[in-house]
Amino acid sequence: MAIPDPVRTLAVYPFRELPKAPDIERVDFGGAWIGFNGWPTAQMGFFDGAEPGDVARIVAASREAARARGKSTLAWWVPPEDDVLIPELEACGLVNEDTPGFESVENALALVEEPAAEIAPELEIRIAETWEDWRAGSDVVKAAFGMPDVPEDVLRERYEEYRNPEHHGRMFVAFADGRAVGNAFAAFGEAGINLFGGGVLEEARGRGVYSSLVRARWDHAVARGTPALTVQAGRMSRPILERLGFEFITPVRVFVDSLG
Q1: Same structural domain for residues 97 and 128?
Q2: Same-domain status, 95 and 150
Q3: Are residues 132 and 98 in the same domain?
Q4: Which of 39, 111, 61 is nearest to 257 (CA)?
Q5: Considering the entire predicted model, what is its pTM?
Q6: Alpha carbon distance 243, 133 (integer Å)
Q7: Alpha-carbon distance 238 to 223, whole Å?
Q8: Is the residue at 88 inside a domain?
Q9: Residues 6+ apart with CB under 8 A from 86
Q10: Is 192 found in the same domain as 149?
Q11: In a domain, 218, yes or no
Q12: How many structural domains compose the chain?
């Protein structure tokens, strides 16, 4: 089935197309912008009308803004249409490499038909609506992706932000025998649901946790009247998702700016 243009656009430009979360501070640099969040991870930047010759100015301004907010790493999202800017990014010292939370190449994929996946019978998938479920899902993310520790009071703040009625997504948590073993996020857009951060504990892999979380989010997309899933997949996730029925759209390169 052909992928509709709005779904393709969501797959390639999810951070632009999705509603801004209430906990995101968007800073514009004239031709680019960054949505700063409170997590100790790479902050993602996006070009928006930048022309060759603009990059050095944008990089300098973004570094200043990031340092002022205590951020140590910026990661710039570079879809094919912005490839013309790559020589200038490299001249500024940015490199196309993996960084925690992002890989050097993120593959835009989309699904508009029922996936070849069911929820494994031994699993329970819950949308996190309590502190306990949200915290359990967050612990899975930390373990699965090797994320740094976050103080308890900061986690409580993040949970309150998540509960804000204006928040544009929900966390899905997979439980086996009462223990959280998988976690994934669904961001709600007009054209469909974008999938973020699917992670499974190492000891629970190979049991259908990842595909069950995909199925649960597809069912949710259908229930809300937007039967489409989009995702930006890394090298391990892409073949799994393509087996489930996702269609490859385009690669997007990520350029990392380590501020030191």
Answers
A1: no
A2: no
A3: no
A4: 61
A5: 0.90
A6: 29
A7: 25
A8: yes
A9: 78, 96, 253, 255
A10: yes
A11: yes
A12: 2
For residue 59, give the nearest of 79, 81, 84, 76 by alpha carbon: 76
CB atoms < 10 A from the CB of 98, how many?
A: 15
Q: Are residues 158 and 219 in the same domain?
A: yes
Contact status, residue 162 vs residue 143, Cβ threshold 8 Å: no
Residue 197 located in a structural domain: yes
Q: Is residue 110 part of a domain?
A: no
Distance from first CA to last CA of the chain, Å, rounded? 46
Question: What is the residue range of 60's domain?
Answer: 5-105+254-258
43-47 and 73-78 beta bridge pairing: parallel
pLDDT in single tens digits along all 260 residues of the chain: 689 999 999 999 998 899 888 888 999 999 999 999 887 788 999 999 999 999 999 999 999 999 999 999 999 999 999 999 999 999 999 999 998 778 999 999 999 999 999 999 999 999 999 999 999 999 998 887 777 778 899 899 889 989 988 888 999 999 999 999 999 999 999 999 999 988 899 999 989 999 999 999 999 999 999 999 999 999 988 999 999 999 999 999 999 999 97
The answer to whether 128 touches 137, Cβ cutoff 8 Å, is yes
Full 3-state SS string of the chain: CCCCHHHHHHHHCHHHHCCCCCCCEEEECCCEEEEECCCCCCEEEEECCCCCCCHHHHHHHHHHHHHHCCCCEEEEEECHHHHHHHHHHHHCCCEECCECCECCEEEEEEECCCCCCCCCCCEEEEECCCHHHHHHHHHHHHHHHCCCCCCHHHHHHHHHHHCCCCCCEEEEEEEECCEEEEEEEEEECCCCEEEEEEEECHHHCCCCHHHHHHHHHHHHHHHCCCCCEEEEECCCHHHHHHHHCCEEEEEEEEEEEECC
Pair (216, 132) in one structural domain: yes
